[in-house]
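Today's session is about reading a structure prediction critically. Students often jump straight to the picture, but the first step is always the sequence itself: look for stretches that repeat, for charged clusters, for runs of hydrophobic residues. Only then move on to the predicted structure, which in these notes is written as discrete structure tokens rather than atom positions. Here is the chain we will use throughout the hour.
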Amino acid sequence: MKKLILFIVSAMILLLASIETTATESESANRENPATVLCTPDLYELTKLWVNNYAGINNTTEINIQIVNPEELGVEIENKQNLTFISDAHIGTLKDKSVWKVVVGRDVVVAVINTNNPYLEKIRETGMTSSVLAEIFTEGKNPNWGFIDANGLGNPVNPYLSNENTVKESLAEFLATNQENITCIASESSKDLVSALQNDTYGIGFFKLTDIINPADGGILPGITLLPIDRNNSGAMEYFEDIYADLNDFTRGVWIGKYPKSLVGMLYAAGNGVLVNDEQAGFVKWILTDGQMMLESMGVSELGVSEKQSALAKLDNPVVYPETPVNGYATTTIIFLILFGVIIAGIVISLVIGNNRSKREIMKSPEPGNSAVLNQNSLTFPNGMFFDRSHTWAFMETDGYVKVGIDDFLQHVTGNFTRVKMKAPGETIKKNEPLLSLIQDGKQLNVYSPISGTITSVNKLLEGEPSLINKSPYAEGWLYMIEPANWLREIQFLKMAESHKEWLKAEFIKLKEFLSSIVNTTPGASLQLVMQDGGVLKDHVLEDMSPEVWEDFQKRFLDSCGVS
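Below is the predicted structure for this chain, in token form.
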């Protein structure tokens, strides 16, 4: 047996040496052949700016730019492994193509109003609908402020509009009209128009977000403020529309999808399968960090902090498609991994056979419910466990240590996890403090602890197979073993199985309300994403949702459990 293991280890060392040689040859080839990035015609100037600045700080990097006909994008990306920059106008050509994509910038058109407008406070309560704005910006209407207040009948609304074509196109789509029908106060300079609006009490206008940013402090220019838009025509600014308090709230609201899609244009980096080398990965990561500073000069808005982090996480966990070509280096690596897996499997089997006295798991995973739908009947909650409103459970073992994990509700809502970020043994944790992060292809949820204590051990199996949390949340998918610090007091705030199931009725109502707001306000969302035939919720309902929706779910369902 020892000789066999020695032979296998020797073979592994030879394979590793082969991998190193192949990697060196591959890196040499990359240096000899300059990288090429593709872009749609409308993004050429921005791409050139990025490439030139990146090359300036990376002297060994040489990147060529190739403009691609938008109609040929799908074929170009699938047949080549070039990094490609695409605007929202052309992203539809990649539908059903085996590509990855991340947002790297955003072209946002905003409605603004003079801060001295006498009707501003009323507008902040009611918002303005697209139909009212169409009255203001459509030729021949000549509206006044009487639609807000009877005293405004004698005060005309003065409409301003940026002279940029992208702004006019976005506004026409938002107002459901043709550009020819739009009337406004005109000027050759958007800067002059913004300046005029700053001095016009009864003015209202549409501009690029970058046009109204104050370079001195990064906020909105003095004299103007964001105009609230009533998306659902309810006559009131409801919670899912209330994103206009400040620029940070607005930026996040745009990301989450609470702002009209027709007024937002995305800029994407895309590619075939995976980022094929460190040079591509480094370039995209630079664009998502330092490269963001180049956007404003091109009239494009930076991403928010959370969105940048989400995009970077997505790059660290790209989707690998079966049809992606595999080079020699990758092939050797795969062979090595297979061989390594065989060795590990052999060792594990030997240990299992030789240790018939191994301890059985105390907690058995219940039989899974109906995986096609999501309701209370599809969830399981073993007796004897304590459950917390943070969607976690705690179970005291016979030795006095407490095992913790997440409940069936949370794993059913999200779908399979691809990575976990966990604390280390020896760390102390307090009840309602962050316990771990659950990650699914770049989307992340932070979960809070149900108890206080010191972590004595971590479930190492989750490092290689995080989906164990989904397959067996109460047994193999446990998270930590904790030495409790205040068990008798804290269990008073936890619920047993039946009480937890009863509490979940309210959670399901809240979940349906949350998903309804997503369908009504999030671009691309539909009833088919959340409902099965018959009107029941789909299992893993958040799995196909965007990182923006996950962030909102975090705030609505989990953050309320954390320490403020």
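Discussion point for the tutorial: The two ends are 57 Å apart (CA to CA).
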